[in-house]
Amino acid sequence: MTKQLEKNRVDLIIGKNIRNIRETRRLTRDEFAEMMGLTTSHIGLIERGERGATAVNLSKLSRLLDVPVNTFFADHDKEDEQPLEGQDLDAHANRLKIKNSIGSLSVQDLELVICLIKGMVKVNNSNS
Hints:
By secondary structure, the chain is mainly α.
């Protein structure tokens, strides 16, 4: 793959992840642009992958949204395309739903989810 094609692919992935996080947080493009100190049209270009997000903007986004920088680089279209060996399709689909749902959570929300899961497992084990 040429450098330009790879750059375009990465810009598309980053833009899609930024848009998903913005929409998950229920932020309009205008609100998001104001937070970032950018124009609404600039945010649109980034979200569509037509303009690359700078390292400075990704760092700022990471801090403002309380997500790790690597969140923006996750290629969800290529991940987990096949179920794990021995895993049925329903379990695989549920695993993907969970993974996609937690991808944009803040650190505090992730800690809450972990506590809830641990509590549910503990209750389930005590009922067995």
